Write a sequence for this structure.
């Protein structure tokens, strides 16, 4: 069987990484790249630099990765759908829910694979965590808390921190326990002089009753990517920067020092840093996209799931504006 012919549009920071992985991916040939603003990182290599999506389609591609700014996702995605090209679009799916809905309908109606690049799902720490939750290692899950913060990225200009970084946490939270958000309450601030929010603190409730909390910002000098899942048997801490997963077990040994035991909730038990295989998440994401096109498996983040995540992100922004809890209904 001939290799899939792949195209890439958008050659910024993420685009150069997509180009690298596409060149190394079995069963795929990167045959065309495009960016109207040039190739600052030399991602094109020996390929000619094309100007836009029409040139990309004319190259005769089977699949495409869309890494252009969020505001262009709809325009580029719809053109590729019309041409019958399978697409992996970087997150968020689109700049607005209506735009995302049009993309969902365009790909579904043509029977094309439409995937969204919520790469955290492919992080080995979170994949191992999900499997352990499903195996009952935590028993009942009480809460999922995430922290995602770091310095301001000058490359992000068309959306705020909720739709850019926050959508990672919305998606991974609902995915970990396979339950959608039913409500969110959020507060945001804008400190960097830009039109969009650069910090959000949010709490939510999932359909299964699990509480969530999320701290996301572009205002911290330290970079942090942490997910904490607390349940009746202890807590898992996943660090997706290092792909480390640690289990803090509820203890079974009685604390005899009364002055200390009075300040404990559950007792402290063993702390175990778990040994897990660590593959590059972007490579695993691309393999899932390729395999979905070939009909071998379907582990991609679908455009429908990407749209559900965007709905929650917009509810967070609305809650911050109204200072009220926003309710979400099933899509």
């Amino acid at each position: 069987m001939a290799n899939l012919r792949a195209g890439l549009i958008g050659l910024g920071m993420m685009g150069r990484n997509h180009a690298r992985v596409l060149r190394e991916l079995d069963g795929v040939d990167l045959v065309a790249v495009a960016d109207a603003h040039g190739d600052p990182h030399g991602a094109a290599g020996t390929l000619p630099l094309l100007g836009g999506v029409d040139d990309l389609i004319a190259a005769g591609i089977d699949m495409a990765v869309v890494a252009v700014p969020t505001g262009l996702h709809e325009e580029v995605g719809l053109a590729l759908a019309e041409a019958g090209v399978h697409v992996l679009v970087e997150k968020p799916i689109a700049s607005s829910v209506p735009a995302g809905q049009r993309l969902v309908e365009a790909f579904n109606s043509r029977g094309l694979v439409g995937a969204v690049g919520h790469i955290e799902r492919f992080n080995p720490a979170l994949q191992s965590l999900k499997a352990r939750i499903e195996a009952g290692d935590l028993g009942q899950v009480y809460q999922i808390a995430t922290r995602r913060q770091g310095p301001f990225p000058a490359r992000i200009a068309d959306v705020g921190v909720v739709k850019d970084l926050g959508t990672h946490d919305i998606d991974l939270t609902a995915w970990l326990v396979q339950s959608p958000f039913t409500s969110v309450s959020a507060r945001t601030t804008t400190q960097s002089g830009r039109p969009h929010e650069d910090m959000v603190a949010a709490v939510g409730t999932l359909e299964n009753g699990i509480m969530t909390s999320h701290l996301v910002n572009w205002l911290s000098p330290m970079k942090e990517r942490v997910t904490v899942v607390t349940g009746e048997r202890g807590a898992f801490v996943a660090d997706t920067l290092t792909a480390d997963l640690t289990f803090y077990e509820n203890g079974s040994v009685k604390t005899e020092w009364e002055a200390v035991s009075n300040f404990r909730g559950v007792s402290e038990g063993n702390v175990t840093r778990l040994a897990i295989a660590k593959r590059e998440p972007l490579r695993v994401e691309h393999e899932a996209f390729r395999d979905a096109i070939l009909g071998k498996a379907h582990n991609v983040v679908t455009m429908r799931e990407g749209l559900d995540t965007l709905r929650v992100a917009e509810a967070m922004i609305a809650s911050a504006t109204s200072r009220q809890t926003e309710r979400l209904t099933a899509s």
User: Anything to note?
Assistant: The domain at 121-277+311-327 is CATH 3.30.360.10 (Dihydrodipicolinate Reductase; domain 2). The mean pLDDT is 94.
